[in-house]
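Hello,

Our lab assistant flagged a job as stuck in the queue for most of the afternoon. It eventually completed. Since we weren't sure the result was trustworthy after the delay, we are filing this so someone can double-check. Below is the sequence as submitted and the structure that was eventually returned. Let us know if re-running is recommended.
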Amino acid sequence: MRIEWIESQFFDPGKIENAMIIIHHTGSTNGMINSFEGTINWFKPAVWRSTNQASAHYIIAREERPIVQMVRDEDTAWHAGRSSWVIRGQLRESLNRWSIGIELQGDGQIVRYTDFQYEALIWLVKQKMRQFNIPVDLIRGHQEVSPWKPDPGPLFDWNRFKRALTSVTVPGGEVPSDEYVDEDGDGIVYIDETDDVYIPGGRERGLLGRLFDFLASLFKK
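-- returned structure --
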């Protein structure tokens, strides 16, 4: 597995720590999934955007190709937005500064993820778990840490993913009827894509939130 570096301008230097991993999807527009290149261009626009600033550390395409990294692990990507989770017994807010964000191309509400995406995600997450000593219970979906978000969606197979990591299983979501058919049984469902990508801003809180994170970093265990 290879990683290709394409730097986003949407990030904050440094972070508190890499305590968890948050799984996202890139989403869809009018029933068409956001394209891989369109997502990269959204995270690295040719012209600076003052609104809807978003980025992630890694993006994994539906078809086999290198994983793209857009923010360094030690820096803060703008992926989780307003979010919270309990980390080592303490409720943490604004999880961008506590996490690594991984985007899967697609929309887990309308189409299943591909075999390649699971293989690449499992490979990448295992690397980060070892590198930063991240436990499996701190690998979460965006919909868990920000309940108003839909990703990675009910068509993400948490059982398959967690079994491959540690043999620990978790309940999967209820899978909706799938109007898309895997005609050749290769695990890839081809649906229309769009380069007209829109991904909501994922920047964390303002000055007070940054102050809280700074104070938390001084007392983190």
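-- support follow-up --
The delay was a queue issue, not a problem with the job. The result is valid. The domain at 3-215 is CATH 3.40.80.10 (Lysozyme-like). The mean pLDDT is 85.
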